[in-house]
Amino acid sequence: MILKVGSKGEDVKKLQQKLGLGADGIFGAGTETAVKKWQADNGLTADGIVGEGTWGKMFPTQQLITEPAPVKSSTPSGSGFKLENLKGHIPDSVISQIPDTAKKFNITTPLRLAHFLAQCGHESGGFKAVQENLNYSATGLKGTFSKYFKEAGLAESYQRNPQKIASRVYGGRMGNGPESTGDGFKFRGRGYIQLTGKDNYTNFAKFIGEDTVANPDLVATKYPLASAAFFFDSNKLWSICDKGADTVTVTAVTKRVNGGTIGLPDRIKHFKEYHTLLA
Length: 279
Description:
By secondary structure, the protein is mainly alpha-helical.
């Protein structure tokens, strides 16, 4: 559970008392400001969201117990998805995530869902990979991340060390601190369409209502599909998906997701498969 703007209850009162505020039990803008200051003063991400990390540092011996959020409907925005037709084509664990993900992220038609699943399936190797594989050889580093390994012998000193590699190639950008902080590895790609960088994890946390900055592995374990849908929604890919069920549209979506057309035949194949099943 987390506490954020809009939360109410005894945990909010306890939090406000800890911060020296009037304890009315309503998490408003003033409480958020005080939380951000406390987080910054205590070496935490100052996002104003009280998750297990912040609560645990404030109250080391007490578990955060908050009244549960209202149960969301399992019916997607575009009701009538023939999800049973997807059985045997994508894992049941993915199918079970679709209704809530569809509702949260504007997946309102079978066409959108087919485009989305085709891209997720390809990017994750058939919904198997939920985090980025950075176990590169020296040759691989020079080919994939050549701009970061120009000096002689540098790639060899990083090869087969995912933590060092990610810290270097993602350090100092996307909201990450410099290489020395290890942020590049902490906020490496996770989810079916790899969410990468502290800025993206922070934005996703604010939307999903759970502290994926303090607990980035949640993106891989709990929100692999939702984080991918967040990418689609944030980057306005639905308007491209809506253009049609032809290869031109699949290609356009692929370019936005991949930055090129790597794996395009496989993406087209799966789009046609899923669209036929869902239409």
